[in-house]
Amino acid sequence: MHSQQSSKEKTRTIIKEVLKPAALEDRLNPQPGCKLYLHLSDLRLALDHVATDKPLRMLDYGCGGSPYKPLFPNAEYRRADLPGNNGVDYLISPGAPLSAPDAEFDLILSTQVAEHVEEPTDYFADCWRLLRPGGSLVVATHGSFPDHGAPWDFQRWTPFGLKRAMTKAGFETTQMLQVTTGPRAVLQMWEICMERLPGRPPFGTLFRILTYWVRRQRRQFHEWADRAFPAHRVVVAEDLSEHRFYVELVAVATRCASGKP
C-alpha cells in the first residue's frame, strides 16, 4: 500500500513539473542556454518530419503537457495520460487497453513514453487497435539517457529493437531517425552529469574549470555545438557504424491493414 501511494505521489509531482509553462516551452521552442538544449532542439527538428496541418483525428498517448500539440494545428487532438494529469480525454491504466474505440485515430503520437511502459508489446498492440488501417504511429524514445522514473523507467531502445517491437504489433516501420548522436550526444551527457564529476586533482581541477565555464557560457557552448556538429543532430538510422551512440530514436510506422497481432 505504501509503495503504491509513493508511486502515485511521484507521478503527481512529475506531472506537475512537466506541465509548467517553462518546461513546455523548452520542448516546443528550445533555445540555447536551456540545460537540455542539445537534445531537445534536435528532437524538435526530428518531429518537424511528421508535423502537419492536415485535419487528422489524433491521440497523444502518454501526453504529459502535450508540448508538441502546436505542430498539428488542425488536428482533432485527444490526450491520454496517467491519473493526476487533469483535463485529459482518457486515463491510462497500466496493463489495460485505453478506453477508446477501435480504429478511432489517424495518427498516434508517443513521445518519451516507450521507455516507461512495463509491457511495450501490449502498448504497441493497443496503438495498433486504436489506429485506422493505414494510420501512423510516431514514437520518440530514448536510446541513451540517465534513469528517470515517471514513475517507472524500464528500458532503452535500439533501432533494431524498436522496429522489432512495432513489427510484432502489426506495424510497418517507414522511417527511423537517430537523434543527438556521436560527439553531440557525449556533450549532452557530460552537461547532464558534469556536476557529479570528482573534484580531486589533477583531472578534478580541469572538470571544475570546464563545469564553471559551461555554467557561465552555456548559451555560447550550445551555439558552438550547433556549428561544430550539425551532422549529428538528426540522422536516418542506416549506417550505424557512424552513429552508434545516440540519445533518442524517432520511429514512424504505419498500421498494416491486415495481420492483427
Can you describe what's shown?
The chain is 36% helix and 21% strand. It is an alpha/beta fold. The chain has a single domain, classed as Vaccinia Virus protein VP39 (Rossmann fold, 3-Layer(aba) Sandwich). It is globular.
Quickly describe the structure:
Helix content is 36%, strand content 21%.
Secondary structure elements and pairings:
Elements: H1 2-18, H2 21-28, H3 37-47, E1 57-61, E2 76-81, E3 90-91, E4 105-111, H4 120-130, E5 131-142, H5 159-168, E6 171-181, H6 182-193, H7 203-216, H8 218-228, E7 234-236, E8 246-255
Parallel strand pairs: 1-2, 1-4, 2-3, 4-5
Antiparallel strand pairs: 5-8, 6-7, 6-8
Q: Summarize the main sheet.
A: 8 strands, mixed
Say what the CATH topology is.
Rossmann fold
Mean pLDDT metric: 89
Number of helical runs?
8
Structural classification:
alpha/beta
Give the number of domains: 1
Query: CATH homologous superfamily, by name?
Result: Vaccinia Virus protein VP39
Strand order of the largest sheet: 3-2-1-4-5-8-6-7
Helix content: 25-40%
* Apparent shape: globular
The CATH first-level class comes to Alpha Beta
Beta-strand content: 15-25%
Distance from first to last alpha carbon: 35 Å
The radius of gyration computed from the alpha-carbon positions, rounded to a whole number of angstroms, is 19 Å
Helix-strand topology string: HHHEEEEHEHEHHHEE
The number of E-state strands comes to 8
Poorly predicted runs of 5 or more residues: none
If classified by CATH, what would the architecture be?
Answer: 3-Layer(aba) Sandwich
